[in-house]
Amino acid sequence: MISVSTININGQKVAVKFSGAAQNAILFLHGSCMDADSWASQLEYKELAEKYKLIAFDLPGHGKSDRYSSVNSFNYRPLKLAELIRPILESFNIRRFVLCGLSLGTNIIAEITKPIEGCNGILLGSVCIVNDKFPLTSILTPGPNGHVMVAANPGDEELRNYMFTHAKTKEQAERYTRAYRSTDPAFRLELGQTLVESGLTDELANIENWNVPICVVYGREETLINTNYLKDWEPLWQSKIHYIEGAGHVINEDQPEDFNKLLLSFAREVFK
Question: Does the reported pTM lie above 0.85?
Answer without folding.
Answer: yes
